[in-house]
Design goal:
309 residues, alpha+beta, Beta-lactamase, 2 domains, 5-stranded antiparallel sheet, 3-stranded antiparallel sheet, 12 helices, binds glutamine
Length: 309
């Protein structure tokens, strides 16, 4: 087996200077300001050691990666009845698509597209004020990452508030089917803030590590979720975590992963590694171009595809 640190160093050195880098998301104006020349990667192994390379300590907007954590939180709050309000099938459509909601009577295809994540956030909101729900999500991220310095980038949150018409449309449409139970502005407001959480690859790899450890966090020893729930969240990440690029990601990389339009990807190798990679330029379906390439190289070098060598 090759040495993990050497593999990461090699990937980071190559990709830091790659000429083809994809396009930084511009529909959220604040994200368009990010320097596309950055690349970072961090891997937490079950022994509790974090290996990293490149810009692994630079905080970026986690965006849709937050959906994995809000899903975990909502399942913890209400259990499997959550699945009455959101499906578990890949959408085959862009992350912000509205079309399937009509055929499926306001039930989103899965919790990792925008419509599904809005429902999950609406579930978390029950019994809380928006500010409290935002606090709950942020505290969850901080405790999983073991780092209280993690914050919400208020400029990104404001930028999303100002431009999030599609997300409001999704929420309004689902509200017509009573699948959004709070005022639309409340649910979208919390959602915009969870997307605007800023974290580094190192913090994210640590935060996601319970998914690689059958639900147990390797650094704290805490059981975050049951082994069954961790397995199921990983299954949803594999099938739905890259929107209409999920099949391609499974084909090329072969592990559960969740991307965000900030250019980050959290990827899980059950029993072996929690990986966070970041490069802001996106491919045509909105997933990090170099992040996906890096994971393809890493999984191949370490023999980490869940489908075998
Ligand atoms: N905040 C973004 C949005 O709602 C998240 C999308 C993403 O990361 N794919 O559009």
């Amino acid at each position: 087996m090759p040495d993990l640190q050497s593999v990461l160093d090699e990937i980071a050195t190559d990709l830091k200077t790659a000429s083809e880098r994809g396009a930084v998301a511009s529909y959220i104006p604040e994200l368009a300001k990010v320097d596309p020349g950055q690349f970072g990667i961090a891997v937490l192994t079950p022994d509790g050691v974090v290996h990293s390379a490149g810009d692994a300590n630079v905080a970026f907007s986690i965006q849709s990666i937050s959906k994995v954590f809000t899903l975990t939180l909502a399942l913890g709050q209400v259990g499997d009845i959550l699945w009455n309000r959101v499906g578990r099938e890949p959408s085959g459509n862009p992350f912000n698509s509205i079309v399937q909601l009509e055929y499926e009577h306001g039930i989103p295809r899965n919790p990792l597209i925008n419509a599904g994540a809005l429902v999950v956030t609406d579930v978390i909101l029950a019994g809380y004020k928006p500010r409290e729900a935002i606090g709950l999500i942020l505290s969850f991220m901080r405790s999983l990452a073991g780092d209280d310095s993690i914050i919400i980038d208020v400029d990104v949150a404001r930028s999303e508030e100002e431009t999030g018409f599609r997300n409001r449309a999704l929420a309004n449409y689902m509200k017509a089917y009573d699948n959004i139970r709070h005022p639309v502005e409340m649910t979208t407001g919390v959602y915009f803030h969870q997307c605007a959480i800023a974290m580094s690859c190192r913090q994210l790899a640590v935060a996601g590590s319970f998914l690689a450890g059958q639900g147990r966090h390797p650094l704290t020893g805490n059981k975050v979720v049951s082994a069954e729930r961790a397995r199921r969240i990983n299954a949803v990440m594999l099938t739905c975590g890259h929107y209409d690029g999920s099949g391609e990601f499974a084909f090329r990389v072969g592990i559960p992963g969740k991307s965000g339009v900030g250019g980050g990807i959290l990827a899980i190798v059950p029993g072996k590694a929690s990986i966070a990679v970041w490069s802001p330029g996106l491919n045509k379906v909105g997933n990090s171009l170099l992040g996906s390439r890096a994971l393809e190289r890493l999984a191949k070098a370490m023999d980490w595809s869940i489908f075998g060598p």
